[in-house]
Design goal:
Structural class: alpha+beta
Number of helices: 13
Oligomer: single chain
Low-confidence stretches: none
Number of domains: 2
Shape: elongated
Number of strands: 6
Helix content: 55-70%
Mean pLDDT: 92
Distance between the termini: 33 Å
Length: about 280
């Protein structure tokens, strides 16, 4: 559609006839993200509250449709890229974010760890180094004062505030480890997400050397600690809870955390949006 046609359509958004407005709204949403700059420009030039509200709603719907499409494509074709999945979720709350800043911070954390890494380091020594770089030098920590805040689940905000929940901290830690070729992966432990350092010398069979509690600044945990925790929850010691989970499972858990956070906050519209995203990725 030509820009002149789009502008003409946008100018009719304040039409009092609801049927006409709904048809225009549908046509604009169908145009996709490329129409957003024109909508924003029209919003800035208008002093009509109704028109501004309608434009805001249309922009929100276009951006949400885009997120749904991106998440479905990620699930089908790119789920090995955990960071991209996290960034798609991040775009829901922060559509205008500077994604390059996320890449830059993670690259800096990787570089700072790599600078001190030696070839003959043991797994425990590597984790101690990561703990020092991520928790002591960078200052990442668990958000204990506002544990249920939605911001704890958005990676951009976690890196900006240096506060997060167990799964967001684990994602940052695992992403840095991945850049350094350290075999650390997420464990979908109920009630508390942790990481596992895997044995790379074992052929075919997956074997955990030890677990890492990132919410407690990288505390080392043994299998007995995991078993004890599962017993408290009356759950069995199964591979589902003790071996690495998929990136899709991680994103599902991030979305469930957000559903709970928005419900706790009373933001029911956002809760419903996230439920839609969760349903899409579960299909």
């Amino acid at each position: 559609m030509k820009e002149s046609e789009l502008k003409a359509m946008i100018s009719l958004l304040d039409d009092p006839d609801q049927e006409i407005f709904q048809e225009i709204e549908h046509n604009l949403i169908t145009c996709g993200p490329e129409v957003i700059p024109l909508l924003e420009k029209h919003w800035e030039e208008s002093f009509d509250v109704l028109l501004q509200t309608r434009i805001e709603d249309i922009i929100d719907k276009i951006q949400f449709d885009q997120i749904k499409n991106e998440l479905q494509l990620w699930r089908l074709h790119n789920s090995e890229d955990l960071l991209e999945g996290l960034l798609i979720i991040n775009r829901y709350q922060y559509p205008s974010m500077d994604e390059e800043q996320v890449y830059f911070i993670l690259a800096e954390l990787k570089r700072n760890a790599w600078f001190h890494m030696m070839y003959d380091m043991s797994p425990l020594e590597k984790v101690k180094l990561l703990n020092n770089v991520i928790f002591r030098e960078f200052g990442l920590s668990g958000n204990t004062t506002d544990y249920h805040s939605p911001s704890n689940s958005y990676i951009q905000k976690v890196l900006e505030t240096k506060k997060g929940n167990p799964i967001s901290l684990a994602c940052v830690y695992a992403l840095v480890a991945e850049k350094l070729d350290i075999p650390i992966y997420g464990i979908n432990l109920p009630k508390h997400f942790v990481l596992a350092y895997m044995d790379q010398d074992v052929d075919a069979e997956q074997k955990v050397l030890f677990y890492i509690n990132v919410f407690n600044r990288g505390q080392i945990m043994k299998e007995d600690d995991i078993l004890s925790f599962l017993r408290q929850l009356n759950l069995p010691l199964t591979e589902e809870y003790t071996l690495p989970c998929s990136n899709v499972d991680i994103i599902k858990r991030v979305l469930r955390n957000l559903i709970s956070a928005y419900e706790n906050q009373g933001s029911l519209n956002k809760k419903q949006d996230i439920e839609v995203l969760l349903k899409l990725i579960e299909e």
